Amino acid sequence: MTSTVPSHVSVLGTGLIGTSVAMAAARAGIAVTGWDPDADALHGAVERAGLDPARDLPEAVATSELVVACAPIGALGAVIAEALVASPDAVVTDAGSVKEAVITDVEARVFAEALPRYVPGHPMGGGERAGPEHASASIVDGIVWVVAPTPATDPASTGLVDGFVTSIGARPTRLTPERHDRLVAFVSHLPQVASSALMDLAAVEEADEPEILLLAAGGFRDLTRLAASDPSLWAEILVANRDRIGAALDLYVSRLLELRDRIANDDVGAVRESFDRAKRARLGLTAKPQVRSGVGVLQVPVPDVPGALAALTATLGAGAVNIEDLQIVHSPEGGRGTVVLTVAAIEADRAASVLAASDYDPVRLA
After folding, report:
1. Less Cβ crowding at N or C end of the chain, within 10 Å?
2. Could you give phi then psi for residue 249, rounded to 5 degrees?
3. 119-131, pLDDT tens digit by residue?
4. pLDDT tens by residue, 95-139
5. What is the model's pLDDT at position 167?
6. What's the confidence (pLDDT) of residue 44?
7. So what's the architecture of 8-175 in CATH?
8. What whole-number distance in Å separates Cα of residue 315 and Cα of residue 318?
9. How far apart are CA 339 and CA 355, in angstroms?
10. Where are the domain boundaries for CATH 1.10.3660.10 in the chain?
11. pTM (predicted TM-score)
């Protein structure tokens, strides 16, 4: 299949993902037109991404080769269908977190002859913050971008999406819509449910314990980060993928009950075995081939002041140490924090030495 790169792209929906895609496209030299029914969101995207704003959807897609629909799940099928009708030559893809329900909606709204130009997609990037003000081209850098053509999709349309995704720095990955929905139920939707449920439990069940959040350390903060996500957006996503997330939740609950029983039965060996298996899997969780053999994790105390993180990363850069992942945990008392660094296992000792030589106090966790 031949991949080509469009010269003009339209982004429909200028929230976090839509604006980030627009910024990445502009960076790649692609002309971008944007539209959003929310005038404030569109204005914010124009200021942030410098895209050309359109007055309505038909105007936005009139001259584009590729349309990227980034609307909420509940409205996504209608937006895709309208784009397919308004621009009879453009290829239309989307950034929806669910594929099967959206495809069914689109198929019910347009004639069959439009479907070869529809290429379902899903960029696996983003965050708990919403809105164009938090957008960045870096959000799509190196991410997996699922391309999930249907049996009706024209291979040439898929090739155009592949070319666009590659040109803006992401990695097109082919999945069927069914497989996509099953896999994201585990690695995207279930984490959101677990994070929100844990935060809700702490907030409601321990409402008479005002110190509980003061005691919340890095682990709790990491696990509940996603609870800050847009409730309306996630409610629509979960309901749209209800069968897949329901099955994933059943398996997760079963695993939790199994672990509960092992703890209740004082089965230290079985608990350790479960945790060890999870640890090995987590340390191997990386898409970069050069670190698949293992990673090292360093914990580094830093002052909570402007420039502290930049100084830390500059120190590692000067020492030719590549950072694979980075997390920041702020102290609830303020004034200090902890940076958790992930590097390739073969670089962990050198990273610790580089940091120690610059008066940091790194502790190797793995």
Report:
1. N
2. -65, -40
3. 999 999 876 667 8
4. 999 999 999 999 999 999 999 999 999 999 876 667 888 888 888
5. 95
6. 93
7. 3-Layer(aba) Sandwich (3.40)
8. 5
9. 12
10. 180-283
11. 0.77
Q: Is 162 helix (H, G, I), strand (E, B) or coil?
A: helix
Cα separation values, 47 from 57, 172, 251, 265, 292, Å: 19, 28, 45, 59, 40
Q: Dihedrals φ, ψ of 238, to 5°?
A: -65, -40
CA distance 345 to 30: 39
The letter for the amino acid at 121 is G
> Considering the domain 289-364 in this protein, what is its CATH number?
3.30.70.260
Enumerate the CATH 3.40.50.720 domain ranges in the chain, comma separated: 8-175
Amino acid at 364: R
Q: How far is CA 4 from the centre of its chain?
A: 25
Q: What is the Rg, in whole angstroms, of the alpha carbon atoms belonging to the chain?
A: 23
Domain 180-283 carries which CATH code? 1.10.3660.10
Task: Give the residue among 98, 82, 90 at the shortest CA–CA distance from 116.
Answer: 90
